[in-house]
Amino acid sequence: MNIDVSAIFQIAGIGIVVAMIHTVLKQMGKEDMAHWVTLIGFVVVLFMVVSLLNDLFQEIKTIFLFQ
Amino acid sequence: MEIIQIVGLGLVATVLVLVVREQKPMFAFLLAAFTGLFIFLFIIGKIEAVITVLEQLADRSGIPSIYLKTILKIIGIAYIAEFGSQIVRDAGQESIASKIEFAGKILILVLAVPIISVIVETVLGLLPVGS
């Protein structure tokens, strides 16, 4: 398993930092940039979650004899 | 003492989710999903050991392996459906969650049909012939 507990802190950190950047960019009047930042952060986190989900499904398939 | 690790992980993740939710609810949801996945992956190794023992027992007692395979598939479907529906329910989509559970129940029923028919045939064989 290549993902460890620190990934959870990574996700929380990404969330907080993205929220911060969003606020700063909004204060600067760059609404569209702020939304792009949010979207990119979301995609990064979504990628982590989906890869872990793939791991889980493969494990369940091999363990519970779905093949 | 893995339970301490898991409970600690859950508590920390809960606090983080509460912190993040105020800013970005999307990230809070993904964080909760990630934590659930992580705990599941942590535990599934233990399930593997238990299932190996079950297979040895079934081999020794001469149960046809098709029954054990069916039961294992049912357990797998139950785990996946429960997990998915809980994550969806966390996101607030109650109706989709109940549909996932419904689909899981139906798929389990479909897998269980051969076993049920075997049981019915056995019971019919026990009954005295003619009346």
Automatic annotation (TrEMBL), chain A:
InterPro entries the UniProt entry points to: Spore_III_AC (IPR009570), Spore_III_AC/AD (IPR025664)
Keyword Disulfide bond set for record:
no
Q: Name one Pfam family in it.
A: SpoIIIAC
Which ranges form a coiled coil?
none
**Transmembrane annotation, as ranges:** 6-25, 37-57
User: Keywords assigned by UniProt?
Assistant: Membrane, Transmembrane, Transmembrane helix
**Keyword Oxidoreductase belongs to the record:** no
**Protein's UniProt name:** Stage III sporulation protein AC
Say which species the protein is native to.
Paenibacillus montanisoli
Automatic annotation (TrEMBL), chain B:
- Which Pfam family name is an example for this entry? SpoIIIAC
**Organism superkingdom:** Bacteria
UniProt keyword annotations, A-Z: Membrane, Transmembrane, Transmembrane helix
Q: What InterPro entries does the record tag this protein with?
A: Spore_III_AC/AD, Spore_III_AD
Instruction: Please list every transmembrane segment annotated in the UniProt record, as residue ranges.
Output: 6-21, 28-54, 66-85, 106-127
The protein depicted here goes by the name Stage III sporulation protein AD
The gene that this protein is the product of is spoIIIAD
